[in-house]
Amino acid sequence: MHTLEIGGGRIERQGDVTRFVIPHTTKRTYADAQWDDYHGLRRSSFPHHPPLRLSLRARFSHEAETLGGTAGFGFWNDPFTISGGILASPNTVWFFAASPPNDQYLCDGIPGRGWKAATLNTGRWPPLLVAPAAVPAILLTRIPGLGRPIMKLARRMIKAHERLIDLKMTEWHDYELTWNEGLAVFRVDAAEVLRSPAAPASPLGLVMWIDNQYAVASETGDFRFGLIPHPEERWMEIRDFAIG
To answer: What span, in angstroms and rounded, lies between the C-alpha atoms of 188 and 174?
Structure first.
């Protein structure tokens, strides 16, 4: 497992608990504490394919609204640069937390932030096609009256499934995701919270992280990336991790 510690982020072991920590932050410094197993690999060589099951226990220092960034665990294809550049079309199967001002509105009726079980399947569009198509679309959303319909059309072109998780993130819970061909099932404390019929294709990489970044792709067509200042240390703890 590759360890990434940026901007004062650190990963600590306390008995059978692993704590991912980021310090108090400013809007000028990116902080990240992360484990992944795809560092140095080409996306076509990422290690994970369905059928696959991930399970662990986790808790957080803050609820999603006050987390001051993003955090979570699961699988993705690492499609973005830190500044928001597009390297590949994004594909994810994960538990994902995002605090304000994050607003990634991917599913009608589901807020663009919070603590979620989620999958995103955009296929395998080459980045050379994704970026040129995204730029004029983003520019068009700035024309009064066009932002909302353009974003609605964009949501129809992707396959996103999400469900908010109604529990306290600051308490220990059992999380499990099962990723099969075309289907992903998420459970919390053995209860099913999401059944996604459009799980992305492999290969994907495992990631567990907490950081102070935000991304906005709102229902009305607002696009922004940035960093969140926070006066407190924040952390995610995991234990009993298993994958296979």
So the answer is: 6
Domains of the chain, earliest start first: 2-182+196-243 (2.60.120)
Element (H, E) at 137: helix 127-141
Whether 97 contacts 169, CB under 8 Å: yes
Whole-number pLDDT of residue 152: 52
CB atoms within 10 A of CB 5: 15
Token pair for 191 = 């209860």
pTM greater than 0.70: yes
Is-contact 19 205, C-beta < 8 A? no
* Residue 121: strand pairing partners: 91, 159
Burial 142-168 (b: 16+ CB within 10 A, else e): eeeeebeebbeebbeebbbbbbbbeee
CA distance 170 to 145: 40
DSSP H/E element including 130: helix 127-141
CA distance 174 to 140: 43
Which pLDDT tens digit goes with each residue over 179-226?
A: 999 899 999 999 999 999 989 988 999 999 999 999 887 666 667 789
Integer distance in angstroms from the first to the last C-alpha of the chain?
15
On the 0-12 / 13-18 / 19+ scale of CB atoms within 10 A, 126 is exposed
Could you give the strand order of the β-sheet that contains 10-14, starting from the edge strand earlier in sequence? 10-14, 17-22, 234-243, 52-60, 173-180, 183-188, 191-196
